[in-house]
Amino acid sequence: MTRRTLRTFTAATALCLSAALVACSPGTTEEEPAAPAGDGTIDPAEFEGKTLEYVYFTDGPDEEATRELIADFEEETGATVELSIVPFDGLEQTLQSRISGGNSPDVARVANWRPYEDVLIDMTGYFGEDYPDQFIEGIAAGALGADGGMLAVPSDQTMNGPLVNVEAFEKAGVELPTAEDPWDWESMIADLEKVQQANDMEFAFAIDKSGHRISTVLNQFGTGFFNADGEVALDDAKAAEALGLLDELMQSGAASKDFWLEQGSRYAGANEIFLAEEVPLYLSGNWQVGLFAEAAEFEWAAVPNPCGENCGGFPGGKYMVAFEDGPEPELAAYFVEWMNRTENQEKLDQLASWLPTRNDLVESGIEYPNRGEDMSVFLADVAETPEDAYATAAHPGFDEAATVLIEEFDKTVAGQQDVGTTVSSLHATLDELAAR
């Protein structure tokens, strides 16, 4: 069934409903699972005995949590969900190969949905034009296709932010920041240098080698790659100030210059520096919470991001998509919607230590059973992060721009070019990407 056919069916069913609700609608009984509000095409009672394939990559504890939620879905609908685990590095190749071979799965978890845009189900065709409004505006905007249809559902998000060695701060007599009294960059660096000296640590500051992570700093200095309209939004002066600060930290030895330059243009995490207690603060993100709960041999905590012109961090995340050429498109669409209802997304977030994408869950908060205070810090920064940061993260050219940022900034750190040249090269790349 093509996307066009799905939309036609939706419209026809809606017209039928207005004329004769009971006679024409698929309907449900009190014993059947209720169809979602706004649905005009799906009758969950028809899913009994059907099978759906969910192609999935795991970040760790989320697999067990996902299986638990799938069991709930199977009990409610009578359908069977086959979870096909694939490595993240091979996900796109696997999906593209299956799509081109006429063997599309029903549903997949992806980090980037755009390579499959032409074969994805528009969720608004099933769940109404206002369905995207259930999700954080910036994230939802990043799930819309060229014609405005919602081709992916944001299922979980990440938020960049700092983690600190609490014991090191206590030894130095330096107070940690709070949401009510956050650091700015100047006060943060001053405090970190005090903690470094008091604990005889090698460095004051660590950050992953990642254009995504550097985008956190750009955001806090009031700039980023793109705006919500897909236009270039980089303020060269603000970008130069942010990158100049990071370069100064590395040139002075406050951050590890060797770590940065030895990695080439590849991503590299600085978590080992933090776990070795060589640095009091590590700028990474909420996905480290589960790892550090197991691996850290000292007291640590998440703290709010420093504020500049903006507060907050920088977002990332994953999506669930349903394929229109899969064996069970209606079941696929229903499963994606069901997994991301308020109560189900909340349960999965609690079990997997994920951050929510739904407006109602961001507003209400989530009670996490493990390291709840740390997860709440990251969740609070979701609301502090400006919309343009979400627009940048969702732009189809973000990954390429982030790679160029790393490559050009490497030249600055290595003393091969000044910050102004790095920013100019980045801006030229952004212009090219926006013009595509």
Question: What would you say this structure looks like, in words?
Answer:
- Strands 1, 2, 3, 4, 5, 6, 7 and 8 form an 8-stranded mixed beta sheet that branches.
- The protein is 47% helix and 11% strand.
- It has 20 helices and 8 strands.
- Strand 1, helix 3 and strand 2 form a beta-alpha-beta unit.
- With 436 residues, it is an alpha/beta fold.
- The protein has 2 domains: 168 residues, D-Maltodextrin-Binding Protein, domain 2 (3-Layer(aba) Sandwich); 209 residues, D-Maltodextrin-Binding Protein, domain 2 (3-Layer(aba) Sandwich).
- It comes from Nocardioides gansuensis.
Write the layout of secondary structure elements.
Layout: H1 3-19, H2 21-24, E1 51-56, H3 62-77, E2 80-85, H4 91-100, E3 107-110, H5 124-127, H6 137-141, E4 153-165, H7 166-172, H8 185-199, E5 206-207, H9 211-220, H10 236-252, H11 257-262, H12 271-275, E6 281-285, H13 288-295, E7 300-302, E8 315-322, H14 329-339, H15 342-352, H16 359-364, H17 372-384, H18 387-394, H19 398-413, H20 419-435
Parallel strand pairs: 1-2, 1-3, 5-6
Antiparallel strand pairs: 3-8, 4-6, 4-7, 4-8
Helix pairs in contact: 3-15, 7-8, 9-10, 10-20, 19-20
Search tags:
436 residues; alpha/beta; D-Maltodextrin-Binding Protein, domain 2; 2 domains; eight-stranded mixed β-sheet; 20 helices; 8 strands; globular; disordered N terminus; signal; palmitate; SBP; Sugar ABC transporter substrate-binding protein; membrane
The quaternary structure here is single chain
Number of DSSP helical runs: 20
How many separate domains?
2
CATH fold naming of the largest domain: D-Maltodextrin-Binding Protein, domain 2
How widely separated are the two ends? Answer: 30 Å
Order of helices and strands: HHEHEHEHHEHHEHHHHEHEEHHHHHHH
CATH class of the largest domain: Alpha Beta
Provide the β-strand percentage band.
5-15%
CATH architecture of the largest domain: 3-Layer(aba) Sandwich
For the record, what is the CATH homologous superfamily label of the largest domain?
Periplasmic binding protein-like II
Portion in helices: 40-55%
Estimate the mean pLDDT confidence: 91
Q: Which residues form runs of ≥5 with pLDDT under 50?
A: 1-39
Biggest sheet architecture: 8 strands, mixed
Structural class of the helix and strand makeup?
alpha/beta
Per DSSP E runs of 2 or more residues, the count of β-strands stands at: 8
Radius of gyration: 23 Å
Described by the principal axes of the CA atoms, the overall outline is globular
Pfam families: SBP_bac_8 (PF13416)
Protein name: Sugar ABC transporter substrate-binding protein
Keywords: Cell membrane, Lipoprotein, Membrane, Palmitate, Signal
